[in-house]
Design a protein that fits this description.
Radius of gyration of chain B: 23 Å
Oligomer: heterodimer
CATH superfamily of the largest domain in chain B: Thiolase/Chalcone synthase
Strand order of the largest sheet of chain A: 3-2-4-7-1-8-11-10-9
Structural class of chain B: alpha+beta
Number of helices of chain B: 12
CATH architecture of the largest domain in chain A: 3-Layer(aba) Sandwich
Shape of chain A: globular
Radius of gyration of chain A: 20 Å
Number of domains of chain B: 2
Distance between the termini of chain B: 42 Å
Number of strands of chain A: 11
CATH superfamily of the largest domain in chain A: Thiolase/Chalcone synthase
Shape of chain B: globular
CATH architecture of the largest domain in chain B: 3-Layer(aba) Sandwich
Low-confidence stretches of chain B: none
Largest sheet of chain A: 9 strands, mixed
Helix content of chain B: 10-25%
Largest sheet of chain B: 9 strands, mixed
CATH class of the largest domain in chain A: Alpha Beta
Order of helices and strands of chain A: EHEHEHEHHHHEEEHEHHHEHHHHEE
Strand content of chain A: 15-25%
Number of strands of chain B: 22
Strand content of chain B: 25-35%
Number of domains of chain A: 2
Strand order of the largest sheet of chain B: 5-4-6-7-1-8-13-12-11
Structural class of chain A: alpha/beta
Low-confidence stretches of chain A: none
C-alpha cells in the first residue's frame, strides 16, 4: 500500500539565480548560475549527480527541445537527463520526478532544475507560440493569460456577491504586500515598494486586473539536489535538514471547462491537491500548522482565490484575511515571502523550484532578520499551470525533519 | 404555389456618420459633400459577406425545420474566397444537411435577384424545395471616392418553397447588358466607376424602364397594379425622374435606405424586398427590380399568410440595433485600408490545418456539440468521452446544435493585451440553456454594459484572417442581447 512521500526524501542543496531582465545571460548561463550555488550548498560535485530532470516551458525560444542542449551546456556527465514540461507547474514536476526517483530507491542523488528565458520573446506577457494546439486555434477565444485569470474576478464577484470595488481593495493589498516583500530580496526581479493607491490607479490590462495585478515576466533558473534523509543527515551533521512532506498534483478532468456545475470562481484542482497534500503530510489543521506560503500569484486574483482553495481562508471570505494582514510578512501565515511570482518574477519553467528555494532558505534560517518568518517549520508551495477552467495544480510541502 | 416563405434582413451594428468621412477626406474631393448625408452601415471587424449572409440566413430560418432545406445560394460580389465555395460555409453555419445543393452567385450586382430567380424556378420545377437564398455585400470605396460614402454593408435572406408562401412568385423579366458602370478586376480591392452622368442618364434611365415595361407587357399589367415598386437607384434626382417617367406613386416607391445603410450591391434588392414584405398586406403586388450588369424584374403577390409571419425578422429590427463608430480611422483599420500596428501578438504565424478543420467542421462552422446517449449530458466542444464523471461513456454521442441556443455570461473580461482590431478583446464563459458550457469571444458589445448573468445569442464571425495565405477562418461568438444593454 502506497503511503506517500513524507520524510522519504531530503533536500541536500538548492540554488537560485537572480531573477529579472537578464539581457546579458543566456538560459544556459542562468542554469549554470543556479547549479553552481546548488552544488556548493549540497557539498557535492557534479559527478555525484546520478540523474537529472530539467524543466522549461518555452524551450524553443531559448535552449531548444529535449534534454541534450542543457545537459551539454551544464556538462552533466553522461547521466540520464529528462526534460519535462507541465505549464507553470513545470519546475515542481521536475522536483517531483527527482524526489520520486530517490524514494523509489533507484538513485541516491538527483538534480531537479528549472530554467526559462522570457525576455528574449519580445512580448509583454507570454507569447501564444502555438502552445495550446490546433483546436483552440480554431475554436478558442482570443485570450491571453491575464484575461483568462481576470474572469475569476467577475465570476467571484457574482458568486459571493462581493462588489468589484471591495475585490480591487483586496487585490491591491495583495500586490502591495508582494512588492514590499520583493523589495527586501536582492535576487528578486521587481524591488520597488508600491502603494495600494498606485496599484489601483494603474492602467487596465484585462478587466478587472490592472498592471500591478500581473506578475513579472522574468528570466531565471532554480534547482535542487535531493537525496535520502539518511544521506542528507550523514552529510550535514549537526545541521537542520529540510525534508519533503508532500507532493501533490491534480489536473483538470474537463469538469470545470465543460460542465455547468463549476462557478468559475475557484480552482477545483487546488482544492483537491491541497486536501491530498495535507493528508500526505499528516496536517490536520493547515491554518494552524503551516508556517508560510509561496502560492501561484501569476495575478493577484489568483492569490486571493487560492487562499480559499487551500482551505486556509473560508470560501468567499479571503477578503477579511487579506485586509487584516493575515498573509503579510508579519501576519499569522506570511504569503509570498520572497516577493512571489509578482515581484520575485515568473520565469515559467523555474518558478516551482524558486518557491521551494524560498521555503528552504527560511527553514534553514539563512535569510536576514528583516525578511525572516518567525518559527518557520513547515512551508507550502503551490503552482497553477494553465487557466482557471483547465489547469494543472502542483504543490509541495517541505519542512524540518 | 411557389414563392417566398420566410425573409430577413441584416444590418451590421456599426454605423459611420458620413460627415465623419467627409471631415477626414473631403479636402481631397470637396464635391463629395453631396454624398455626405446620413450614415452608412459598416461591418464589424469580424464580419464579411459570409458571416452577414449567415446572420440573415439564421433569422430567415427561425422556426423552420432546417432538415428540410434542400439548397443554399449565396449572392455577393465580395465573397472571401475565389476558390472554396462560399455558400458551403454558409450552409454549414446554418446547420444544414450535407446532402443539399449549394451555389455562389456573383459577378454583377444583380446576382441577388438572379439567385432568387434560380431558387424560385427550381421550386417551380418541383425538383427542389425549401431553398435558402442569401445575399450579402461589403464593397469598398477608396478613401475620398464617392463610393466610400455611398456604399454600405448589409445582407438579406429568403426561404423559397411551396408551403405557407407569404409572397407568391408570379413572373419575371430580365435584361442583360455589358454596361460597365462599376467594375473590379481580378485583384482589385476598391470599386471603380465611370462618370455619374453616364450611369444615370444611360444606365438607370434606360434599363430600369426597359425591364419594367418588359414585365408589364409580358403579364399585361400596369404600374399602378403594384403596391410597391422595389428598385435600386441610389441617385436621388435620377430616382425622382424615374418615378415620374415610370409612374411610380410616392407611396409605392420602396425606401432604398440610402441614408440609413448605403448601397449594398448584390444584397440591395433582397434587403429592400425584405423591408417591403414587413409592411405588406394580403393581395399586394410587389415588383422587384435589380440593377447591375443588366436588370432582373420579379413580380410577387402577397398572400394571406403574411398576417401570420414571424415578427422581428426584417431590416427594421436590425436598423434599431446600432452603435456609431466613433472614428473614421477605426473603419480604415478594420477594412485593411490603413495598416495599424497591432504588436507582436498579431504576427504569430499559425496555419489553418485543413484536415483538422474537416474533422471538426460541424463544430467549427455549425456550432454542433454532442449529447451523451447514455446520460443525456450536453457538451461543447464535442467529446469522445462523456464529461459526466458518473457516466464517462465512450463514443456514445449524438449531434446537438448550440447555434440556436440562448446562453448566459458566467464570467467575462475586457483584455487590452490580446491582439484584436477592436480592443479590448472581450470574452468569457457562456453557460447554455439546456446544458453545455464554453468560453467564447464576445462581439457587438461594449465592456461597460456587461454583467454576469446577461443572456447572449450566438453569431457566426470571422475568427481570423491569415494575411500570409489570404484565408479567412470562422467560428462563433457570443452577442449579448440588446434589450438588456
Amino acid at each position: 500500500m502506497a503511503d506517500g512521500i513524507k520524510d522519504k526524501v531530503a533536500v541536500l542543496g538548492m540554488g537560485c539565480s537572480r531573477f529579472g531582465e537578464r539581457w546579458e545571460s543566456d538560459a544556459e548561463d542562468l542554469a549554470a548560475e543556479a547549479l553552481v550555488e546548488c552544488l556548493e550548498d549540497a557539498g557535492i560535485e557534479k559527478k555525484d549527480i546520478q540523474a537529472a530532470y530539467i524543466g522549461t516551458h518555452f524551450p524553443t525560444m531559448h535552449i531548444g527541445k529535449a534534454a541534450p542542449p542543457l545537459a551539454v551546456a551544464l556538462k552533466l556527465p553522461y547521466i540520464p537527463v529528462t526534460r519535462l514540461e507541465n505549464y507553470c507547474a513545470t519546475a515542481t514536476e521536475a522536483f517531483r520526478a527527482a524526489c520520486y526517483s530517490v524514494a523509489a530507491g533507484v538513485y541516491d542523488i538527483v538534480l531537479a532544475l528549472g530554467v526559462e528565458k522570457l525576455k528574449d520573446t519580445g512580448y509583454g506577457g507570454l507569447p501564444a507560440a502555438g502552445v495550446l494546439g490546433v483546436k483552440p486555434f480554431m475554436i478558442g477565444s482570443n485570450a491571453t493569460a491575464p484575461g483568462m485569470f481576470a474572469q475569476l474576478g467577475t465570476a467571484y464577484s457574482a458568486r459571493w456577491g462581493i462588489s468589484m470595488e471591495k475585490i480591487k481593495d483586496a487585490l491591491a493589498h495583495i500586490s502591495a504586500k508582494s512588492h514590499a516583500n520583493g523589495a527586501l530580496n536582492p535576487k528578486a526581479h521587481l524591488r520597488k515598494v508600491i502603494t495600494e493607491e498606485q496599484i489601483k490607479a494603474a492602467p487596465m490590462i484585462a478587466y478587472p486586473l490592472g498592471l500591478f495585478d500581473c506578475c513579472g515576466v522574468s528570466d531565471g533558473s532554480a534547482c535542487a539536489i535531493v537525496t535520502t534523509p539518511e544521506i542528507a543527515k550523514s552529510m550535514k551533521k549537526n545541521q537542520n535538514v529540510v525534508n519533503v512532506k508532500a507532493l501533490s498534483v491534480t489536473v483538470s478532468s474537463g469538469d470545470e471547462a465543460l460542465n455547468t456545475s463549476w462557478d468559475g470562481a475557484h480552482f477545483a484542482t487546488t482544492r483537491i491537491a491541497a486536501t491530498n497534500a495535507y493528508k500526505e503530510a499528516g496536517i490536520k489543521d493547515p491554518r494552524e500548522e503551516i508556517s508560510m506560503f509561496e502560492v501561484h500569484d501569476c495575478f493577484s486574483i489568483t492569490e486571493m482565490v487560492t487562499m480559499e482553495d487551500l482551505h486556509i481562508s473560508p470560501k468567499g471570505g479571503a477578503y477579511e484575511d487579506i485586509m487584516s494582514g493575515f498573509y503579510d510578512l508579519d501576519g499569522q501565515i506570511p504569503c509570498q515571502i520572497d516577493g512571489g511570482l509578482k515581484c520575485f518574477g515568473h520565469p515559467i519553467g523555474a518558478s516551482g523550484l524558486r518557491m521551494i528555494y524560498a521555503m528552504y532558505e527560511q527553514l534553514l534560517e539563512r535569510v536576514p532578520e528583516e525578511r525572516k518568518v518567525k518559527n518557520a517549520r513547515l512551508g507550502l508551495t503551490h503552482n497553477l499551470g494553465g487557466f482557471p477552467h483547465q489547469n494543472v495544480c502542483a504543490m509541495s510541502i517541505v519542512g524540518l525533519d | 404555389m411557389v414563392g417566398i416563405c420566410s425573409f430577413s434582413g441584416y444590418v451590421p451594428r456599426y454605423r459611420l456618420n458620413r460627415k465623419l468621412i467627409y471631415q477626414a477626406m473631403g479636402w481631397m474631393n470637396p464635391g463629395n459633400i453631396a454624398n455626405a448625408k446620413g450614415e452608412k452601415a459598416v461591418a464589424n471587424f469580424d464580419e464579411d459577406s459570409i458571416t452577414m449572409a449567415v446572420a440573415a440566413g439564421l433569422i430567415a430560418l427561425t422556426g423552420k425545420d432546417r432538415s428540410k432545406v434542400e439548397c443554399v445560394y449565396l449572392a455577393s460580389t465580395t465573397m472571401p474566397y475565389k476558390e472554396r465555395l462560399n455558400s458551403n460555409i454558409v450552409s454549414a453555419a446554418l446547420g444544414l444537411n450535407d446532402h443539399i445543393r449549394t451555389a455562389d452567385f456573383s459577378g454583377g450586382l444583380k446576382a441577388g435577384t438572379t439567385a432568387l430567380l434560380a431558387a424560385l424556378e427550381g421550386v417551380e420545377s418541383k425538383r427542389l424545395n425549401n431553398v435558402v437564398v442569401t445575399a450579402a455585400e461589403c464593397r469598398l470605396g477608396k478613401p475620398a471616392s464617392p463610393q466610400e460614402l455611398i456604399l454600405g454593408d448589409a445582407a438579406a435572406a429568403m426561404v423559397v418553397g411551396n408551403e405557407n408562401v407569404l409572397a407568391e412568385f408570379k413572373g419575371s423579366y430580365s435584361v442583360a447588358y455589358d454596361f460597365v458602370d462599376h467594375y473590379r478586376g481580378h485583384s482589385t480591392k476598391y470599386d471603380r466607376q465611370w462618370e455619374d452622368r453616364w450611369i444615370r442618364d444611360l444606365g438607370y434611365d434606360q434599363f430600369v424602364p426597359e425591364v419594367i415595361n418588359g414585365l408589364l407587357n409580358k403579364y399585361a399589367l400596369k404600374i399602378e397594379d403594384f403596391a410597391k415598386v422595389i428598385y435600386d437607384c441610389h441617385y436621388p434626382a435620377a430616382r425622382k425622374k424615374l418615378n415620374k417617367v415610370i409612374g411610380i406613386a410616392p407611396d409605392a416607391d420602396q425606401n432604398n435606405f440610402q441614408t440609413e445603410i448605403g448601397q449594398s450591391g448584390a444584397a440591395q434588392s433582397l434587403m429592400m424586398l425584405s423591408s417591403a414584405l414587413e409592411e405588406a398586406n394580403p393581395g399586394d403586388k410587389l415588383l422587384v427590380v435589380s440593377f447591375g450588369s443588366g436588370c432582373d424584374a420579379l413580380y410577387f403577390e402577397v398572400t394571406e399568410n403574411i398576417k401570420k409571419r414571424a415578427k422581428n425578422n426584417g431590416i427594421s429590427t436590425s436598423l434599431t440595433n446600432k452603435a456609431f463608430l466613433d472614428n473614421y480611422s477605426k473603419y480604415l483599420v478594420w477594412r485593411g485600408i490603413l495598416p495599424g500596428e497591432g504588436g507582436l501578438r498579431t504576427e504569430e504565424d499559425e496555419w489553418t490545418r485543413w484536415p483538422a478543420l474537416w474533422r471538426s467542421r460541424k463544430m467549427v462552422l455549425g456550432l454542433w456539440g454532442t449529447k451523451c446517449r447514455k446520460c443525456r449530458a450536453v457538451q461543447i466542444p464535442p467529446q469522445k468521452v462523456c464529461v459526466n464523471q458518473e457516466c464517462n461513456a465512450v463514443g456514445e454521442t449524438e449531434d446537438y446544435l448550440f447555434s440556436d441556443k440562448v446562453g448566459y455570461i458566467e464570467s467575462f473580461t475586457g483584455d487590452m493585451l490580446a491582439a484584436t482590431l477592436n480592443p479590448p478583446a472581450i470574452y468569457g464563459q457562456i453557460k447554455f440553456d439546456g446544458g453545455g458550457k464554453m468560453m467564447f469571444d464576445f462581439t457587438d458589445c461594449d465592456l461597460d454594459v456587461l454583467k454576469t448573468g446577461m443572456s447572449v445569442s450566438m453569431s457566426f464571425r470571422r475568427k481570423y484572417y491569415d494575411e500570409k495565405r489570404d484565408l479567412s477562418g470562422y467560428f462563433w461568438k457570443a452577442v449579448p442581447f440588446k434589450e438588456e444593454n
